[in-house]
Amino acid sequence: MTAAVVAVPEVMRMITPARIGAYRVERLLGTGSFATVWLAYDPALADRVAVKVLAENWSHDLRVRERFLDEARLLRRLDDDRLVRVHAVGELPDGRPYAVLAWADGGSLRDRLARGPLPVGRALTVLDEIAAGVAVLHRHRVVHRDLTPSNVLFHSAPGGDRVLVADLGLAKALASASGLTARAGTPGYMAPEQDDPLAVVDTRADVFGLGRLGLRLLGRERPPGGAADGRTAGSRLRAGVPAAVDTVLRTATAVRPADRYPDADAFRQALRRAVAGVPTGDDARRASRPRLVSAVAAVAWRSPSPPRVRRTRSAPPRPVRWAAAGR
Fold first, then answer.
1. Do 206 and 147 form a contact (C-beta atoms < 8 A)?
2. Does one domain contain both 218 and 74?
3. pLDDT for 14-54, tens place per residue?
4. Which active-site residues does the annotation give?
5. pLDDT computed for residue 196 by the predictor
6. Range with top average pLDDT, 57-66, 190-199, 225-234, 252-261
7. How large is the C-alpha radius of gyration of the chain?
8. Could you tell me what percent of the chain has a pLDDT over 90?
9. 28 or 181, which is more confident?
10. Does a structural domain hold residue 311?
């Protein structure tokens, strides 16, 4: 199931409930095919939250209902700073389930891109942080399967926005992700094998999605949704993007899963090496070496200009912010 939240046109009229459970509703945040999301006030936490409610037309479909709850349970179990957090679940008087989520007050990547392209350095940082969030899922043997700008959110935090991966309605444990599941995903970001009813969907499908997000963030123009891997003649990326990044994105969006990086962590390390100017080889995408945390990979942690600052182990890592031309 996908419940990607989209902007609500002003002409759309929807009755705003006064309350959802114990939460006082303030306004509509967005609506999708399977759910509606409301901004509400939580009196217990004395803070605003996002309340995601299953759409009324799906309330009697037990499979959709269970997948809605599965998403909330999964996010609650993972409980990571790079993923949207779940505070609670509940049920409306009509039987529809809802999930109470941390409110991403910075909006979505889709919203930001609608206002224009991000500076190159910021776009590289955002892509790195998205990959870090997806890597959390992959370490827990979970595939997201619907990585799009709408499913990347921002939350205000000291030192800058925190990037969050959201909307795991399509996520499946790798043990059960197979061709027997229904076709699901968003055209333009969905891996080719997700359109094959007999294909096995694994972490490499998310690597494809990361590559497509990279093209959206760094490309000269939005990649066409109909192309399988966006391969075109000449440079596809904006001025100021290191040339090696194009190679990383081509590998990530290869048609054959075997030609891609094995998981989000391998993609992230290859991206960092490309930005740092360290050559990348074919071994970077081999499943036998999924984690590239050598001294070479460590070079990519350093921003080109400021010196690296030593921090204690208890301090959370700060996002890598790359300086680049074209900011």
1. yes
2. no
3. 688 999 999 999 999 988 778 999 999 999 989 999 999 99
4. 146
5. 82
6. 252-261
7. 20
8. 56
9. 28
10. no
CA pair distance 7, 258, nearest whole angstrom: 36
The pLDDT score that the predictor gives to residue 199 is 82
**Burial call 44-63: b when 16+ CB within 10 Å, e when fewer:** eeeeebbbbbbbeebbeeee
Residue (of 288, 284, 315, 313) closest to 297 by Cα position: 284
- Token digits of residue 107: 């909006």
Q: Clarify whether residues 133 and 259 are in a common domain.
A: yes
Q: What residues contact residue 259 under an 8 Å CB cut-off, 6+ apart?
A: 251, 285
State how far the Cα of 169 lies from the Cα of 64, in Å rounded to an integer.
Answer: 9
Please tell me the predicted confidence (pLDDT) of residue 311.
44
The answer to whether 112 touches 302, Cβ cutoff 8 Å, is: no
Q: How far apart are CA 7 and CA 110, in angstroms?
A: 9
Neighbouring residues of 287: CB distance < 8 A, sequence distance ≥ 6: 262
The CATH number of the domain where 284 resides is what? 1.10.510.10
Q: For the chain, first and last CA: distance in Å?
A: 37
Looking at the structure, do residues 182 and 202 belong to the same domain, yes or no?
A: yes
Residue at 308 is within a domain? no
Helix (H, G, I), strand (E, B) or coil at 36: strand
H or E element, residue 295: helix 295-299
pLDDT at 88 over 50: yes
Residue 44 maps to which CATH number?
3.30.200.20
Note whether 6 and 32 are within 8 A (CB).
yes
Query: Which residue segment(s) compose the domain that 72 sits in?
Result: 19-102
pLDDT tens sequence across 110-162: 999 999 999 999 999 999 999 999 999 999 999 999 999 999 999 998 888 99
How many CB atoms sit inside 10 A of residue 210's CB? Answer: 27
